[in-house]
Hints:
CATH superfamily of the largest domain: tm_1862 like domain
Helix content: 25-40%
Strand order of the largest sheet: 2-1-3-4-5-6
Structural class: alpha/beta
Radius of gyration: 22 Å
Distance between the termini: 57 Å
CATH architecture of the largest domain: Alpha-Beta Horseshoe
Oligomer: single chain
Number of strands: 21
Amino acid sequence: MTDAAPKKLFIKTYGCQMNVYDSQRMAEALGAKGYVTTESVDEADMVLLNTCHIREKAAEKVYSDLGRLRPLKHARPDLKIGVAGCVAQAEGAEILKRMPLVDLVVGPQSYHRLPQMVEAAGKVIDTDFPEEDKFEHLPPRKALRGPTAFLTVQEGCDKFCAFCVVPYTRGAEVSRPVARLLAEARDLVSRGVREITFLGQNVNGYHGAGDGGAWSLGRLIREMARIEGLERIRYTTSHPNDMDDDLVAAHGDVPQLMPYLHLPVQSGSDRILKAMNRKHTAEQYLRLVERIRAARPDILLSSDFIVAFPGETDADFEATLALIRTVGFGAAFSFRYSARPGTPAAEKPELPAELADARLQALQALITTQQRATQEAMVGREVSVLYEKPGRLRGQMVGKSDHLHAVHVTDSAGRPGDLVRVRITASAPNSLAGERITI
Length: 439
């Protein structure tokens, strides 16, 4: 008697790093039901779309992808199709109404229930915000895909920015207990992980329960840095209002905390920042940048920008460009404003598309100039690179520098997980090239 062939799971992940982590955990949860992941949608027994509501027209893109699955479902009626993540949370039963081919809809706080959902008869929807900690119901982490790993430390957001759906799709801020995070981190390191990125919708608002009460993110980082074998620590995404003194100081005090910080500002105009409900001014952001750079002079900063927010004038846009010139970002993500249903800003008239596109192109051109200058300044320098995988060329390894630059290194003896010194020899549009330094 032979064991039944494993069922195959195809997951498409949209959007952010949180979703990459969530997709991994969903796969592990479904692994308990005999599913193994596949890269081919055609051979899948289940297709799961793990969605994100941050990008423009996110729901429409999901519905479009579901439409492309219709012939596959028609040919194989037993194929299970699920929609997970933030679009699932926001759209809920509307997905089942518009797309009858979908079998299940699960929100980002309920995906630990996936094993039960796939066994249920008929259509299933679960977009609750359960009281139980979903992480306590997920199986242990399984196979890792390299020397880096994500670790969710916080979920949800209480900021209620006028353009953002996260408080509605992810819920209120919740921080995981310190002891559980330390145990998970130690397990990851014991299995070869050398770099961990802490994840959260508002990660620097972390306030998990630990010895003596609630711990800040700075204190958590300092404790994590004591784990032998954990060489690198990163975190994302942050809100400027939650960069407290201890966290700023940690960038100078903790060698394992990498000199890279993603710190979204969204706009350089105080009038627009107020309309966005950001609760900080451009000047306060600039003073914060000064404090961070005083603690860690070589830090590379990246940010998020929304262009053409309702009511944005030429003067407001110029204020954003001025802030970018002042800070000098090494990278940034920028988007043309698009309304998210249910958010306060969605009730306001949008600017003409042509104007929004022109402003976005101008902002991206400035950011690109700064990014290229940052990378070109690295040529000739020695940096630390953590190898993640072999490169496309023979005798080449690809990894990340401490500043999060992708680096292609000539090194025929390299292996994933090696942490090496590299001399940068060239800069490409989105990466660096280098040679390993032999000591």
